[in-house]
Amino acid sequence: MWCKDCSRETENEQCELCGQATEQDIPVEIYWCSECKVPIIKFANSIDKSSCTLCNGRSRYMCADLRPVFPEERLLLEIISAKPMEYKDKSVWASNNRYYIDGNPKAITKNYYAKHSAEYVLRLLNKT
Known about the structure:
- The chain is α+β, with helices and mostly antiparallel strands and 128 residues long.
- 21% of the residues lie in helices and 27% in strands.
- The chain has helices at 71-81, 110-115, 118-127; strands at residues 2-3, 8-9, 28-33, 38-43, 59-63, 67-68, 92-95, 98-101, 104-107.
- The strands form 3 sheets. The chain has a 4-stranded antiparallel beta sheet with strand order 6-7-8-9, with no helix packed on it. A 3-stranded antiparallel beta sheet has the order 4-3-5, with no helix packed on it.
């Protein structure tokens, strides 16, 4: 069982410290290994959170939730924030309005989308 308020594991359905109801599952956190260039999933109560499970190198915290960015979304991201195909050989992941390119965060606000018209995006898509 897991207490969200105290961020600790317990065996009870109610936390002994704060009295709040506990959850069944221990949450996970996502870490990034710069050597392997992959996200690493760790439990929140894991002792070795800052170590990569693949190469034993040092990893750093990324976020609590992460999803893959498929080529079509990556291309749109490139068009609105960089240049087409710039992230082609990079590991690109997303969490809310933030993209992680090789582990480095890049916040995408509505200004990025408002900067270019649909016609502009379509013209660049047709060029690639």
